[in-house]
Amino acid sequence: MFSGIVEEAARVVALNKEEGNLHITLRCSFANELTIDQSVAHNGVCLTVVALNKDEGTYTVTAIQETLDRSNLGLLHVGDEVNVERSMLMDGRLDGHIVQGHVDQTAVCTAVVEEDGSWRYTFSYDVDPAMAAKGYVTVEKGSVTVNGTSLTVCNSERNTFEVAIIPYTHEITNFHCIKPGTVVNLEFDIIGKYLARLMEFKA
Q1: If we measure between CA atoms, which residue out of 102, 110, 121 comes closest to residue 43?
Q2: How far is Cα 47 from Cα 38, in angstroms, rounded to an integer?
Q3: 163 belongs to a structural domain
Q4: Mind listing the pLDDT tens digit for each residue in 36-59?
Q5: Phi and psi at residue 58, in whole multiples of 5°?
Q6: Both 118 and 163 in a single domain?
């Protein structure tokens, strides 16, 4: 379980393909604090630490084929920045929203507009009516996770939405690397999914 409050943007230092799996090695400031089997969100995807190199400040996670098909992790290159967040402490404040680390689908950035010190990003995503009925959509002023970052939706349309990014988020996450055409990961709000599911049983 995560909050969508990204700790930093880790740097990809190695990518190793093994059959349908991709082993991703990253460098970040808290690598020395990690342990094998620990869960870390990568652009919003919950992955397990499988190897550590504390001398180099790196760790390795493995993404299976299903994860690569559903997310943007298969598009990574060495040198790319990845938003990372360790699992949420149960005795801490929920500063973002409830994030499972289970990416639902990808979206494409269609516009980036600087607005006097902040940035407005527009994203477009494919809408499946059956999945939309199950809560896989955005709603105005609702929550959405973009590359693991908890954000508030504005200008929600049928298959597009916008988010506003403050300078701190722009600097600390990989949002400063996102431009029109960039593919990002989406996780829709779990509460909305549960409400949509419960409506199916309404008498």
Answers
A1: 102
A2: 8
A3: yes
A4: 999 999 999 999 999 999 899 999
A5: -125, 160
A6: yes
Q: Are residues 131 and 174 in the same domain?
A: yes
Q: Are residues 52 and 135 in the same domain?
A: no
Q: Are 178 and 83 in contact (CB under 8 A)?
A: no
Is residue 95 one of the residues assigned to a domain? no
Residue 66's SS3 state is helix
| Whether the predicted pLDDT of 201 surpasses 90 | no
What are the tokens at 27? 């460098």
Q: What's 183's domain CATH number?
A: 2.40.30.20
Give the tokens for residue 176.
């400063």
For residue 112, the one-letter residue type is V
- Provide the token pair at 73: 């992790």
User: In the structure, what pLDDT confidence band is assigned to residue 203 with cuts at 50, 70 and 90?
Assistant: low
Per-residue confidence band for 77, with pLDDT thresholds at 50, 70 and 90: very high
The residue range of the domain holding 32 is 8-86
Lookup: tokens for 125: 């995503």
Are 109 and 19 a contacting pair, CB within 8 Å? Answer: no
Give residues with Cβ within 8 angstroms of 70, minimum separation 6: 103, 104, 105, 106
Digit-coded pLDDT (tens) for 90-122: 766 667 788 889 999 999 999 999 998 999 999
